[in-house]
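Entry 14. Ran structure prediction on the chain below.
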Amino acid sequence: MYYVNREAIASRLRCAPDLGAAASRLASEWRGDLMQGLAQERCLHLALEIVTDIGSFLIDGFMMRDAGSYEDIVGVIGGEGVIDAQAADRLRTLVALRRPLVQDYDLWQRQQLHPLTGELQGMLESFSEAVKLYLSRELDPWEQER
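Output, structure tokens:
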């Protein structure tokens, strides 16, 4: 029997719609000022943290292969069928922003709209649906046996 922290996954998934909407609004109203640049950084950072946190919960809970990096977390959940190959590619691109956003923030181009900002809402919606579907498929049969 698996122990999957569904509450923590659900809590993080609840953050995704607001984050996606904020990123979409930023992209549509982009002027490149400092406040928008900082908001964009935070949206991208939180989005990749949602993906990696949930990925880690799934890897631990379903005893999947250990991930060696943030990008590998996406690779593992892609390989296990949580997300499809196309989503894995896009999410790997998002997760690769962790280092520039967290460690190389002094080099980040705040005045430029990052291409993923406009895609974030759709990416998070697709990711959320895929995670919910996977959990339903993998856990609901166990719960029905109880």
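The mean pLDDT is 94. Will compare against last week's run tomorrow.
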